[in-house]
Amino acid sequence: MFPVEQSSSTAQKKRSNESTENRLARKPKRVDSEVMEKGTGDFFDLYNSIINMEGQEEIAKRDVIKSYFNFGKALDDCFNYYKKDNPKRTAQALVNKKVWEQLPNVSDDALRKKKERALKIFELFNEIGEDKIQKIKSFSASSISKLD
């Protein structure tokens, strides 16, 4: 049905046998917009497009998790600062006030959810090691924060 070309080019063989880490470390090549939008082109380009997008997705997930970790760390640091001179509840109220002052256009509910997720992610990776974030491949920040 589809014409399939057999290619024995060394570059193609190397690319298909290349480890995932090497593919992800390499900067994704720009794929022709026609291939991306219409799904037309040869199978090699379409396959490489999938590999590149999956690599970008993994990197994006790690970046989101790292951002939540940093937000959680900032919340924890701020809480510990206020806790030195205040009771626990007062320290938490001062942290909340400081966050709301800097994010006035974010709804209380949205901010509460982001803070909860950030603190869960911070507590997990603070315990097992921040470097473990780089090993994440398929979990999102949302799925990690749902772990008990």
TrEMBL record:
Region span, Disordered: 1-33
Highest taxon listed in the record's lineage: Eukaryota
Comp. bias (Polar residues): 1-11
Biased composition (Basic and acidic residues): 15-33
Protein name: Uncharacterized protein
Natural source organism: Rhizophagus clarus
